[in-house]
Amino acid sequence: MEHDTVTGSRIEITHLWKAFGLSRRKTPAEMDRYSREPSLVHGKKQVIAVRDISFSVDEGEVFVIMGLSGSGKSTLIRCVLRLVEPNAGEIVVNGKNVTAMDKKQLIAFRRTQMAMVFQHFGLLPHRTVLDNVAFGLKVRGVDKKERSGKAADMLKTVGLEHWGSQYPASLSGGMQQRVGLARALVQDADVLLMDEPFSGLDPLIRREMQEELLRLQREMKKTILFVTHDLDEAMRLGNRMAVMGDGMFVQIGTPEEIVQNPVNDYVHRFVKNNC
Ligand SMILES: Nc1ncnc2c1ncn2[C@@H]1O[C@H](COP(=O)(O)OP(=O)(O)OP(=O)(O)O)[C@@H](O)[C@H]1O
């Protein structure tokens, strides 16, 4: 199960499918046939959120997934951690086949190899900022002194060294987002999954957070899968990006390539409306 990657990619996804309302595991070919069934085509309960997506993200790359609301971005990024179970396809992260892991392996893998930042910070309200940042390390069994030290260092890195003893509610949205970022970074995972982490922040703070992420990325060289519906953000952060529509990747390329040569009307409208 744990084969090595030969490509140097940190994340490799092949023929990934997710249909809500369908719990069974199928082959990609079966999913393809299933997706053509008249009951689905004519819109019944099942929603095919991810349709036959394949791509890889290289070590140290920021790969942005962009698309309109409902195009399947969150479902896709959640599939990588198996927070949503895909119906078909393979996910390989750091050379490990995530799709083949049992529950125990998956829990260990999530704790050590990947970290995720969500739009809603998900901070624990009754724990201090320092404890929030240290929490992931606690779950991994790191002793108290070491985790407090690492959490304090990371708070300094994100500019919140004086806020460790406060509770999340006393911080602004932007500061809470920094805590969320620190909590993900302190875990020292090579792969970072970020689902609209800066939406909901006011534009100036958002810009600041983007700069902060780029700065940290220069130092830490994480492999980042980043979901946004904002072209400006995608252009600023992404080495490459994919535009998603109706569960599929409509176009993959560098942000410049996509803006200069949109492959169809959907991408064209997307790019135009976001400019
Ligand atoms: N738990 C669920 N059960 C059923 N359908 C779902 C579920 N989660 C998402 N969907 C559907 O799957 C499709 C893709 O949703 P998803 O949230 O992945 O899109 P998105 O691009 O992330 O949208 P947004 O930008 O609004 O977050 C949508 O049609 C959505 O209604």
UniProtKB/TrEMBL annotation:
Keywords: ATP-binding, Nucleotide-binding, Transport. Residues 35-271 form the ABC transporter domain. Pfam families: ABC_tran. It comes from the Bacteria. GO terms for biological process: glycine betaine transport; response to osmotic stress. The keyword Secreted does not apply. Belongs to the ABC transporter superfamily. This is ABC transporter domain-containing protein. It comes from Desulfosarcina ovata subsp. ovata.
